[in-house]
DNA sequence: AATGAATGAGAGTTCATTCAT
DNA sequence: GATGAATGAACTCTCATTCAT
């Protein structure tokens, strides 16, 4: 077997472990290396051939969750000639859609306290894109700056953070309280997004 | 010592245990009765003089957290002759303020998965008040119904849920990501609340 | 309250504790002072006002069980002019009857391993009466000595022990295996007793 | 080390654990996994590599005890042309001999209350053989039916149960009361067996 | 690369017992 | 005489991890 093949098998095993780990972790009732090994159908010791420790495994899990969510959010491509406000709106819908499509990853990334390597969070690349879209709207004077006396950067950040808050609110509630009698998930999402956006449009 | 005195000591001890438990639980890295006992400076067995089991203790913790948050939110009194839209706005600010004033309780109540007694959540009395305030606005035609073809009750629920989503979004982010470079907590809160409300006003 | 009255209350409490203890012990799933206290509806500490320790309590329990069984067996009175063989037979029936009437005591006395005070068993007074009845049969030449060459005392003991073995066998099996498909308890007892006795009659 | 070798070591360890468990259990003063581990000279956790739980271990203990006793009793082979009554007699002697040769197993199997898997006792195969031997005697009219009006099956059962009672009586007493001043173990056994059998012979 | 065996530590919980009140 | 509070020790069992093979 070539080195490349060997590496591929390794990677697949690693991925399988992480996949099982995510399920197990979110199932809620305790996450143990033994249970994980049982689910992966390997010996507990085998896990340590792929991850130095339980903590490292969980950190990798979180890292991947962020990656998946970023990827999903990044899939919302800006269209040429598109109205900048619609861009923002579509971006927000994309955020919620991605979160709901990957609830496990969303919970891991935003709703759990996991051991972090050294206190640093992965750079929120996606958030940067939001800021950019918002800035466009402000530049094009399609958004009225909520604090006119503050600088444009500050207003950009403020708006982006407010938008994030709103979409995070729906997304997390829909994920954490699936049993709540929501009137209509779609209508709710639309209402929150439109509310947050429309109130900015001048 | 009189029976009343004894009861008081009991209550204080119970409260001290719950206090330490909240800290320990939210600290994130595992919650054990033994650690709790160490923190309270008593024997592990002593905890069982106050709580039948770990689960019962945690449930009580959650119950109290809800109670505190309800109390805080209920403190927002409607004023006579007040504009119904302002009532909604003030209610939302009260929600966020309460959550931020009791971040531990907020996390316990809304951001963690705790063993629930029998699958039932405490009835969200506070949420009912929101619905009521929203209905007033719809009745007084100060809010435009987001889905005109739907009934007034459905629109009430939809709006209330959207408002809840928005405020929960800010509250939870501010609590969970205290290290994030928020532009301004107050401005952010105002922006989210105003956005959610203003877009409804006709 | 007079001293006598006080003493009577004490005795009653003590008896109540022992009564509850017997039930709890034979219930099978663990015997603890706390559970006992709960059953007696007093505090665990109160038990220690009546018994120095758990062991002492259990020893007293065993002592009383023996007493009750002796009493029951002793109730079989010899009748004037009665055939000595029939005396033996009636005595054996009395033993079984008493055991089955007090199965808890029988189990405590003969079928459990309890901490003994100092390795001594209570003198088996009842057993002495059996020997006496047997000796009468031998004296009257109603029993043929199983080992003619051995002395009369030895034969007496041998027969008495064999009779005891037989009745203990039925009694204990009927108590320990209540679920076994016994053909007929009465017929079984009669068969065992008659078998053991008849084969001795010359 | 080959897989077969490994398996052998496993089996030996398992056997060693069960051996120590039997001793510890019958010693009387409480049976705990920790004490067992100490006796086996391994960590408490190691026991769980061989048995899922304490209950399972004890059940296996009982199962093995029954197996050993059955085996011993089954070793009493019927001889061609043997008098059917002698067959019964020899079978009973075999029962007692086996019990006394394995007192620990006898106590576990017949004199203790152990957690049973699902309320079912192992089918008493040995008991079936006794019934068969008894039936032969009845068929050959060597035994007089104790209840002539009852069917042959009922009489077979009745006699078999009576014989069992008698031998169980001696066996258990000799095991449980080793300190009792027995005249002569052998003479006692013979007396009980002969008594039970002879009284049936017509 | 993979595993079976093993373990020290620690989990939740109950125990017999004491003691101040 | 009785109790509530307390505890140290013990319980069953699971954990993350290591290591020889």
What's the CATH class label of the largest domain in chain A?
A: Mainly Alpha
The value of Rg of chain A in angstroms is 20 Å
Superfamily at the CATH H level of the largest domain in chain A? Tetracycline Repressor, domain 2
Structure class of chain A: mainly alpha
Tally of structural domains of chain A: 2
- CATH topology name of the largest domain in chain A, in short, is Tetracycline Repressor, domain 2
Major β-sheet annotation of chain A: none
The first-to-last residue Cα distance of chain A is 65 Å
Mean pLDDT of chain A: 89
Largest interface: A-B, 38 and 38 residues
Secondary-structure element pattern of chain A, one letter each: HHHHHHHHH
The proportion of strand residues of chain A reads under 5%
The coarse overall form of chain A would be elongated
Number of helices of chain A: 9
Give the total of beta strands of chain A.
0
Low-confidence stretches of chain A: none
């Amino acid at each position: 077997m070539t080195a490349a093949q060997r590496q591929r098998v390794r990677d697949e095993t690693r991925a399988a472990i992480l996949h099982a780990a995510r399920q197990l972790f979110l199932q809620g009732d305790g996450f143990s290396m033994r249970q994980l090994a049982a689910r992966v159908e390997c010996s507990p010791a085998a896990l340590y051939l792929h991850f130095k420790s339980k903590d490292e495994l969980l950190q990798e899990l979180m890292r991947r969750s962020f990656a998946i969510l970023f990827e999903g959010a990044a899939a919302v491509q800006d269209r040429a000639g598109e109205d900048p406000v619609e861009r923002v709106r579509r971006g927000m819908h994309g955020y919620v859609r991605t979160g709901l499509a990957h609830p496990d990853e969303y919970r891991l990334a935003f709703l759990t306290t996991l051991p972090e390597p050294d206190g640093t969070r992965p750079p929120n690349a996606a958030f940067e894109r939001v800021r950019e879209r918002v800035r466009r709207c402000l530049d094009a004077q399609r958004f009225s700056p909520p604090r006119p006396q503050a600088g444009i950067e500050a207003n950009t950040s403020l708006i982006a953070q407010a938008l994030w808050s709103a979409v995070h609110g729906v997304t997390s509630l829909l994920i954490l309280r699936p049993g709540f009698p929501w009137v209509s998930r779609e209508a709710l999402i639309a209402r929150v997004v439109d509310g947050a956006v429309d109130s900015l449009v001048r």
